[in-house]
Write a structure and sequence with these properties.
α5 (about 165-185) links the parallel β5 and β6 (about 185-190). About 40% of the residues lie in helices and about 15% in strands. It contains eleven helices and 14 strands. The chain has helices spanning about 5-15, 35-45, 80-90, 110-130, 165-185, 210-220, 240-250, 270-280, 305-310, 320-335, 355, and strands spanning about 25-30, 50-55, 70-75, 95, 135-140, 185-190, 195, 225, 230-235, 235, 255-260, 270, 290, 300.
Length: about 350
Amino acid sequence: MKHNNFSLLNLFHSIEVDVKDFKNYMNIFITGIAGFLGSHLAEECIKNGHKVFGNDNLIGGYEDNIPKDVFYSNTDCNNYEKLNEIFKLKKIDILYHCAATAYEGFSVFSPNFVTKNIFQSSVSVFSAAINNNIKRIIFCSSMARYGKINPPFTEDSKPDPVDPYGIAKLAAEKVLINLCELNNIEWAVAVPHNIVGPRQKYDDPYRNVMSIIIHKMLKNESPVIYGDGEQKRCFSFIDDCINPLYKMMVSKKANKQIINIGPDEGTITINELVNLCANHIGYNGKPKYFKDRPLEVKNAFCSSDKARKLLNYKTSSSIQKAISETTKYIKSKGIKNFEYNFDIEINNNLTPKTWKDKII
């Protein structure tokens, strides 16, 4: 593998490198490397001269997402023994924990499945990393940690998660900080919000709203909207998130920090998102409205002031670009049936009809 030391040094000089025992390249391990975020991050690390390793259980990703230069293990994050063995054998320097069953709404009805693969799996990963003296751990948390507090969410706001997914993410953060502080391991928590773009799983009926909307329209089917569609969000195109996430690995300023990652220049409602997608695709149908999903936060968006200050974060991509690139990707992969692969653990009159009757 060729190591691009020139670009590495330029980057490191500009953001004050302080990773312990830094060398020209590092051995980086990325959990969830077949997933949307993990695979893009792996490409960025390889481009900058690092050796990249990773694992995935393929619940939320596609194997063809994995860059060819990656050492890949089809290992579940709950398999502490296997991760401990890999971290020791490969002499891993940096860990990015991106893997997650990122099913916020679904977590209300399948809390055992979701939290096992958020909280317990994170503790497994962190424990193996700390046991092998990994220099810095970067944990990708979620905007769900903030809950229903008034937006825009800032990192110094007191988190108040409202669903099992958000609660599990926040609990994992607390365990990470607790164990890293005890063992003198560097840590950073990234809080990405609503990342969209190519490689996102689009045949999943439980998450990834933009991909679901576009996929439905390409199938010439009505997109689904919960409630009145006036929920406000900010969407982050993947290209704008990778650079600050990469800087969180090497920046002195990022150590022991929680940092929101994503745009805050303007919000968009789900109704507006549907209209933009329809205009781009040329879809003339109408969406179907269903009752609100229980515990869904109405207005959820973050401030990115801290990322701008510490990581020189900038937004360079529009929502229109995100829609265009996501549409191209789904067309290139082909139309699929939505996969209802997970059992609903709590099935009652609160469970969304779209999931019970498999009608997305």
